[in-house]
Amino acid sequence: MNARRIVTGHDSSGRSQVVSAGPLPGGEGFRHSPGFAAALIWRTDPRPLLAAQPADPTQAVHSVLPAVGGTSAMLVTFPPQGQPLPVDFDPQAAAAELCERLPGLGERFEAEHPGFHRTDSIDYGVLLDGEISLQLDEGDSTLLRPGDVVVQVGTRHAWRNTGNTPARMLFVMVGATR
C-alpha cells in the first residue's frame, strides 16, 4: 500500500507538532488474498479526547468497527477481480486472515455470497484510485470513478473491481444504532 500515517499533537508549550510519522501500520498486502490490502488508520471512542500526545488506538484492537458514536478510518486496496488466484489459493486461510487482520469486520462477510457484508455504521467511502463497482441487493450496481464519494447507511453491499488496475478507497465509519 506504501502509505504513510502522520499524527499530530502538541508539545509541552501547546504548539502543534508531528508526534509520529511512518508507514501505515498493517498496510502490507494480505498473504492469502493477493493484491488485497486493508489498514486501520485511526479509531476514536464515542467521546474522543484531544490528547497532546495521542496514543496509537490501532494497537490491540478488538474490532475495527467503531462503537456507536465512535469512528474508524481505513485505507483499502481491492485487486482487479480478473487477477488469477494462485494455484495453491486456500479460501479458508484467506477468510481466517481477514478475520485476524480486520477483527469485527471479517466475521461479517457472508460465506454464501462472497464479498457481501453489512455493518452497524454510516460509512463515507472515497475512491482515490482505479474504478470499482458498489454491489447492492437484487444485483443493483453503481460504478465509481476517482473522486466519487459513497455514503453507506448500514446497507448490505459488496465491492467489485472489474477493472484492470487496483482500486484504492478511503473509508470513515461512524458507529450507529440500527
TrEMBL record:
Ranges of residues in domain Cupin type-2: 115-172
Highest classification ranks of the organism: Bacteria, Pseudomonadati, Pseudomonadota, Gammaproteobacteria, Pseudomonadales
InterPro entries xref list: Cupin_2, OryJ/VirC-like, RmlC-like_jellyroll, RmlC_Cupin_sf
Name of the protein described by the UniProt record: Cupin domain-containing protein
PANTHER family registered for this protein in UniProt: CUPIN TYPE-2 DOMAIN-CONTAINING PROTEIN, SLR2101 PROTEIN
Record region (Disordered): 1-27
Pfam families: Cupin_2
Bias kind Polar residues: ranges: 10-19
